[in-house]
Amino acid sequence: MLLHDRHDQGQCTTHRAVRHEDAIQRFGRFPHRSPALGRETTQEEREFLDADGFAG
């Protein structure tokens, strides 16, 4: 059971890493961090975030 849980965690980690990379490739940054960094969010980023494109 423990080995199965670790395999599932690895898949989840890989999936998150790919989503992070996709966001950076698409926008050149993490759109969800813009407010905390004082950046304006573009319309494309807003649409992506509103569609639950990336929750961080």
From TrEMBL:
It comes from the Bacteria. Residues 32-56 are annotated as: Disordered. InterPro entries: DUF924 (IPR010323), TPR-like_helical_dom_sf (IPR011990). This is DUF924 domain-containing protein. It comes from Xanthomonas theicola. The lineage of its organism: Bacteria, Pseudomonadati, Pseudomonadota, Gammaproteobacteria, Lysobacterales.
